[in-house]
């Protein structure tokens, strides 16, 4: 998120001075690291949680359309940077990988069939295929059919315009661009305090990890893009807009294989349906990953729990985030989400055998010796104050900005980096409203669909998807 915002500002206002402070020895070591996330170009092509079934049996597609629109904005910006030679090798961060939805059981097959009918004629979902024929699905993803009972009711959709993204490589590429053009990146610097000065600027206190030197800097605008660490920093700032927010950390684990024979038999991102009562973040998926030019498979997620807000965080992060103003919302969420608590308990206590059994529902012939466990990044779900319930748990993202627009931060986890560009455009619109009119012509050059709805313009949608596909070498 910080890299995206920096790149946008470099394009829009190249004379502004940008300094980035990173606590670790390099950027993209936490959530942006490719093995700390699923790498899905989240565009709702296959993620079933974006298309819930309503009580009347129809499929709600508004969330899917919104996420897809957001992803197309991100793709346009990346394509612009590539076309300008500022991100020279798109295959270093984005690669074509078909997106599939895969379900079993009569009720789920009926649901997927209705979902396909609701999406197939939409311009943002053009090219989606559907089948209940095992022979057809075998051609799409043989490893999901080998060893499966012929009597089992299954169904799948496939769309070839899906992508796998190495968000670590993307983040590094964006930072290379902005630092090559004057931005100052200082690693191993930890922010220990934020205080607004009488003139509206911010005084930022930092600790340099090497030598433990204390540093103070000032800034007219501050963006807090610290992933799970953003909540504590926003609290330190003292802005009233951060009051009432809490966070609930959830860790994740995946099974991974690098066996080339297995990888060759599954070249897709296949998302299933979350079990009844489980949260959206638990949707199981079997993914092709392409990192540093090498393909692997990853299956999960298996939820875990750690009180840390970052993988490299403190065991006291959760406790230290509790304030008088967010205590009641956090307690209310705990009261109203006992099913989520029980789900996490079962996941934490699940044996390796139980975890592997979940994989065999996707890949019946999977063998334990081919797979090993990896721990993904920490996700801190947003807890918000709510007048009716006291507090609600939010699974999306939340942009927090001060009333005067001098500081902004991002809380939450999903759909994450895929929608970084539209989210950062929101930050710019909120924090620099006086500049937006002057910036708009440049924004439209970078993002031709800016201010328009692709979902309402089939011709523009086709043109946009085709042009970004060509620019990003997605063949």
Automatic annotation (TrEMBL):
UniProt EC number: 1.1.5.4
Pfam families the UniProt entry points to: Mqo
Gene Ontology MF terms in the entry: (S)-2-hydroxyglutarate dehydrogenase activity; L-malate dehydrogenase (quinone) activity
Domain of life: Bacteria
Key word Glycoprotein present: no
EC category: oxidoreductase
The protein's annotated pathway: Carbohydrate metabolism; tricarboxylic acid cycle; oxaloacetate from (S)-malate (quinone route): step 1/1
Substrates-to-products reaction catalysed: (S)-malate + a quinone = a quinol + oxaloacetate
Keywords attached to this entry: FAD, Flavoprotein, Oxidoreductase, Tricarboxylic acid cycle
Cofactor annotation: FAD
One Gene Ontology term from the biological process aspect of the record: tricarboxylic acid cycle
The family this protein is said to belong to: Belongs to the MQO family.
Alphabetized HAMAP family for the sequence: MQO (MF_00212)
Name of the molecule in the record: Probable malate:quinone oxidoreductase
Primary gene name: mqo
